[in-house]
């Protein structure tokens, strides 16, 4: 696994790459990619960091696992590559955007534009075997991404964390709530959204209100 992680992240996370768990994780991921079809492509595993340098992080959205279908995952949580059909959770994210901020439903499900504005789109697990949801969980990725969240909490101020669903909400223990803002809701998946736990959360407008209050540029969702 090529740890092609953006330089500002390398600076704040350099200790992690030397730890035994990360070396074991690297070996495991190399083996998986050598013998199985895995997603995202190896050169896109760290895209969340590439598009959103540490110094630029204003908002953090936490997902659980990359999409495991062909050509879907691009290293950013909830995002898909250009021209790919939008998965159900992403459809519901865009529907909420429509009602919350009046944004027209987009053709592209690629969320790179968000990342480039300072939105870290972080999956807790950064890789997955094709068509096997959760197949790379509990191999070390969660340890690494928990450190990422805690590092942001410790070293930055006034970051907005959007925690969608039970899994993401459990990450609150890593975040200093005196320094940062946290918005929580149900997950945008159909199961949660259709029960009334997602639509109407207004997270996109609320997030921008918080950013403006803290003299930061709002996100063009």
Automatic annotation (TrEMBL):
Main location: cytoplasm
SMART domains membership: UDG (SM00986), UreE_C (SM00987)
Keywords per UniProt: Cytoplasm, DNA damage, DNA repair, Hydrolase
InterPro entries referenced in this protein's UniProt entry, alphabetically: UDG_fam1, Ura-DNA_Glyclase_AS, Uracil-DNA_glycosylase-like, Uracil-DNA_glycosylase-like_sf
Superkingdom of origin organism: Bacteria
Record-listed E.C. numbers: 3.2.2.27
Broadest EC class assigned to this enzyme: hydrolase
Presence of the UniProt keyword Cell membrane in the record: no
Sample GO molecular function, one term: uracil DNA N-glycosylase activity
GO term, biological process aspect, one: base-excision repair, AP site formation via deaminated base removal
Reactions it catalyzes: Hydrolyzes single-stranded DNA or mismatched double-stranded DNA and polynucleotides, releasing free uracil
GO CC terms of this entry: cytoplasm
Catalytic residue positions: 65 (proton acceptor)
Compartment list: Cytoplasm
Residue intervals of the Uracil-DNA glycosylase-like domain: 50-211
Matching NCBIfam families: PRK05254.1-1, PRK05254.1-2, PRK05254.1-4, PRK05254.1-5, ung
General function of this protein: Excises uracil residues from the DNA which can arise as a result of misincorporation of dUMP residues by DNA polymerase or due to deamination of cytosine.
Entry-linked HAMAP family: UDG
Similarity comment: family membership: Belongs to the uracil-DNA glycosylase (UDG) superfamily. UNG family.
Name of the molecule in the record: Uracil-DNA glycosylase
Gene behind this protein: ung
